[in-house]
Amino acid sequence: MQTLVITLFILAIVSFAIQLQLLRNPWLHWGWLMAVMLFVYFMHHMAIEQSYKAFRATLTNSGVMMDFTVLQVIEAVGGSLISIFLIQDYYKEPVKKIFRYAVYLPGIIIFPALFYMESIFFLQIHGVEFKMAAVVIAGACVMVIYSLGRGFKALVPEFDLQLEMKFIVHMLQLIGGIILSVVMLRLPVQSANQELSIAPLLVLLIVVISGIIAGVFWHKIKLKSIVKRHILTHK
């Protein structure tokens, strides 16, 4: 399960970096990077208190993992919808303003991902002044996210293709959420008073799988329709 969670964290960071490159306002771009830097720095007090035992306890806590899975699914579905609506807006299709502004929210999962990475780093180092290490880690996180975004933009300069890649990343997050839900069905119950209900998880799986299938087909149909209209208007 730890490998799966780390994979989801990496996907969250990649998705965050991609969406930052979609922001047309550079102040918003650097504002989010500054928020990342401040978060990593001010969370170092909690990060140095973590241990491998604490992480294992969290991974076997059905309540915490269920909350994480739900949050992961919500972010992935929301990011997929944002990608679709931004493609429509790019091809001058009518889109509600609320969806245009949704691009300014790059994600939430990145923050627990950064906290986990920071905690792991502190577990690996010894004899280093924590505040100085926190400054270095915060700067490194910003540089990694910025470099990922710039590298992605250099490889995929076309805005519509960037949205396509963002959509694919969110699909991978959804698949990871499904796998994590299945793994959670095998987690032991921690106490007699805490029970893990299987029914909500099965409903979640059905909804997510149905959403993925419907979303992929709907996305392809709408994209083909938009491309045809775009070609016809430029003839």
Report on the structure:
- By secondary structure, this protein is mostly helical.
- It is built from ten helices and no strands.
- The termini are far apart.
- Residues 188-201 have low confidence and may be disordered.
Question: Could you outline the blueprint of secondary structure elements for this entry?
Answer:
Layout lengths: L1 H21 L3 H17 L1 H4 L4 H8 L2 H29 L6 H5 L8 H15 L5 H26 L3 H26 L13 H36 L2
Helix pairs in contact: 1-7, 1-8, 1-9, 2-8, 5-9, 5-10, 9-10
Identify the notable features of this structure and list them briefly:
single chain; 10 helices
Order of helices and strands: HHHHHHHHHH
Helix content: over 70%
Terminal CA distance reads 53 Å
Q: How many beta strands in the DSSP annotation?
A: 0
Assign the structural class, choosing from mainly alpha, mainly beta, alpha/beta, alpha+beta, or little secondary structure. mainly alpha
Q: Give unreliable regions as ranges.
A: 188-201
What is the overall number of helices?
10
Major beta sheet, specifics?
A: none
Radius of gyration, Cα only, in angstroms?
A: 20 Å
Strand content: under 5%
Choose one word for the global shape.
globular
**Mean model confidence by pLDDT:** 78
